[in-house]
Write a structure and sequence with these properties.
Two copies of one chain form a homodimer. Chain A is α/β, with parallel strands linked by helices. In chain A, about 35% of the residues lie in helices and about 20% in strands.
Chain lengths: ~210, ~210
């Protein structure tokens, strides 16, 4: 079993590392970080770099594809090398997954048409423009496509898919090992729960956040 | 304001990236990944590398120190270069923090004696041997020392400290932006909540997990 986590310029680190630390603990699986070129790939802030150990071309048929998001998604949505790889990898994958605006890349590659999927709450409208049925759920499974909401939701996605593949028992063991017993100090993690003025403020800034 | 996140061989990725993605969004702060040498630093599985952009020597006095954990902590607990740097950095830091077994490094550096602190649930006894008062809480603040429990708890720690420094409003905005509205598919994230046989199994394996 091979899990490929895709990196690209200006990705969001937790989008990639959440699924890595959960789903990546699948028994007998190899996880590999891939990008157009090997070497460090910088996140949106530029002060974090994860290393891509293999090129996209070197990993043509992973069993599981994980696509993180990032605020600089627009250029990637026109990156034909990346979109072609997503289409090729998806043709033989068992699961094709995304976190955050990673679903916009899957949609831009034409993989989510007519399906239910999710994304960062600020990107749901954009997702709809690709003929996708957006939902406000945190983790959405439609066939072999598993999409997660913003940034931190990749942890929930990773555990959910881990349970589906390796069984509830193994997923619970990984939850315990990663001590995933969340106790956020605030209750503002979704647009339904956060103060309305914060939601509006982030919506107003989202033109910049998502570009 | 400078935030230094310390990397070392066999660190746990989410320990570092959880605080990075939350606390790292402190306004007007620079976050820098540091290690003994610059360049890629591999996690415990070897299939993930984060890049250290500066050496420890180049960042002698960060305002906030973040120390992740990892299962290969024992050699680091005898790494005098790292422990010396922790002592030096701590002498002028505003906050000294850890996630998971990172607290064992702070304790080994002599920084937590007589204080309340936490660690990965499998490492609490080891913490006690350093004269630290271990607690089962997820995030513990004692003076300027903020320690968090296992792996994923760094997200809660990061948001907690962010609120303390930048105010609740900013921390809520970061929680909303990172869509941190956790919905774990299981309720097994702590030894109190997980099935007893899983707790015992991980305890039995912990000799290997923690080395």
């Amino acid at each position: 079993m091979q899990i490929a986590i895709v990196l690209f310029d200006r990705f969001t680190a937790l989008d990639a590392v959440g699924p890595y630390e959960t789903l990546g603990r699948l028994p007998d699986a190899e996880t590999v970080f891939v990008a157009e070129e090997t070497g460090p790939v910088r996140n949106e802030s530029g002060n974090l770099a994860l290393v891509a150990d293999r090129t996209l071309a070197e990993v043509p048929s992973p069993d599981i594809v994980v696509v993180p998001g990032g605020p600089g998604q627009t250029p990637q949505m026109e990156n034909e090398t990346l979109l072609d790889w997503l289409r090729t990898a998806d043709a033989t994958s068992t699961w094709t997954t995304s976190v955050c605006t990673g679903s916009l890349l899957l949609a831009a590659a034409g993989l989510l048409g007519g399906r239910r999927a999710t994304s960062h709450w600020l990107a749901l409208e954009q997702l709809e423009r690709f003929g996708v049925e957006p939902t406000g759920e945190r983790v959405v499974t439609d066939g072999k496509y598993v999409t997660a909401a913003g940034v931190s939701s990749g942890i929930d996605m990773g555990l959910t898919l881990l349970g589906r593949i390796a069984g509830d028992e193994h997923a619970r063991a990984v939850q315990l090992l990663t001590e995933y017993d969340p106790q956020p100090p605030y209750d503002a993690g979704s647009p339904e729960k956060a103060p309305a003025h914060l939601v509006e403020e982030l919506r107003a800034r989202s033109r910049f956040i998502l570009r």
